[in-house]
Design goal:
Length: 604
Amino acid sequence: MTGGLLGLRSGSYGSLQHLQNGAFHPQPQFVVRKPSKMLPSGSREKERLLPYLFRFLSRRRVGMLILVGFAFLVFLSGFSTVSKDAPESNSVSITQHIHHINPYDNGESDQDLPFFLPRIEVKHKDNVDYIPSTVTESGENNAHHPLLPPHTSAVAAVIGYTPPLHHPCENFAFPPPPPPDRKRIGPRPCPVCYLPVEQAIASIPSSSSPSPLLKQLNYVHEENPIKNEPHGGSEFGGYPSLKQRNDSFDIKESMTVHCGFVTGSKPGHHTGFDIDEADLKELEQPHEVIVASAIFGNYDIIQQPRNVSEAARKNVPFYMFIDEETEAYMRNSSVLDSSKRVGLWRIILVHNIPYADARRNGKIPKLLLHRIFPNVRFSIWIDGKLQLLVDPYQVLERFLWRQNASLAISRHYRRFDVFEEAEANKAAGKYDNVSIDYQIEFYKNEGLTPYSEAKLPITSDVPEGCVIVKEHIPITNLFTCLWFNEVDRFTSRDQLSFAIVRDKIMSQVDWNISMFLDCERRNFVYQAYHRDLLEHMAPPPPVVHPPPRDVVIPGNRRGAVIPENVAGRTPARKNPPKRGRGERRSGSRRHRKVGPGFRDNNSI
């Protein structure tokens, strides 16, 4: 196995790739030994030629030949190891292609990686994840998601999306990582191959993805929900009991589950998280694609999207949900006016927010967009601190349609185990330790285990949930509903509840979530600081340029005052007259004594 990993690493950085391409040619190695008296005459003549050959090659060349021969033997052993391991199973290739270390993570150690992951930078190609879809005679789409077993292909494929036989990005590969930079530590973005906007728009699937087993999803409506259990959630969530929670994971063709907005006639109308009637009518309009975000508690500074095409500006609305506190700040700072627009963002004001925690309020639009936008097909959610840097159509094509996925989210840049994520949250003071411990212990009793090789092809249990790319179909809507119910019942740290909900649904139906690299996420969104951090940062010192002073130059007959920037210029000198051989220039530099405190300007 060691030889196989060594060869794979060479593919990334070229150390052994030169050997494969024939840059080094092994030469026969000669060993000089004493001639034996028992050798026949022909052998003695050959032995006499060896000293001359040794002189011709010299010691350095012999040493190089020995090294080249040794390297060639190492290469052959590694090649044979890979050949032996290839037919056994696909688990090694899955591990190498999916579980590779992020080479663009500068300053982070790999000590937290599991024991079975290769600690190398593996060359990653988009065509590993890209599998063209083809339709059989029976009409079944046999393209399958790269993280799914082959038998789940008909369920996971996006119907109506037929990529070209030769995708423009199929030969794309990560370039070598940038050199370490002490001034810039932590994770970095990595290159991503996007289609041009016109081709991305042409790639929109003509029909919706299939929803495995679940065909109709309904939501609980109750005017006066009653709390019967100590950890039953909130009034906004309807206080679902533990039995109702467990029944919601029993996937059927038609289901009714809790999914927020329990009271009132429709989401946003007397439900908590109330929205003005004029805005509700706009949110009910049909759209192919939307982009949504939220800022509650005046927690972030609104970020304007960049590199948005004219087609997206015309057809893709950008919605920003804010509460009354954020609205007051934006109006006082003249950011928001009566148009309800800030750049590309259409501002949606929310009244009667149900939670005291602004972060928990932000989970409502983040996870329940399908309830707020009942007639939307695709959505991109980004947290309020993020700035979108790539056109929405290009993001959808790269991370959803090209992957034959219905929901995509990035992995955490470092952690992939829920138990480690819980300890990190406690150490950083993200939530009170008692509530985190209660939630993790509850999940342990339900069967949640630390991440291990047994979970392959699942690549991580911890998402970086600030970006969610989603197609609104029953199975994805069910997932985000049940994910929200966990956030409502336990802590607001959605990274802790992601895996338990996903695993429970996957145990019932053939469905999965595409989890892409965090460095790829950082390619299309820029992560800014929260407002409180920005306010505590010391502003950079202002650059002060002193005004030019007026000086009087000695020797000026009229005593004119000349600005210093003009007076400081050295006047042009005329060529001195030629001197004879015996004349010596007065004040010559070779006879001038320089004091210890004097420094000639020319030496600077």
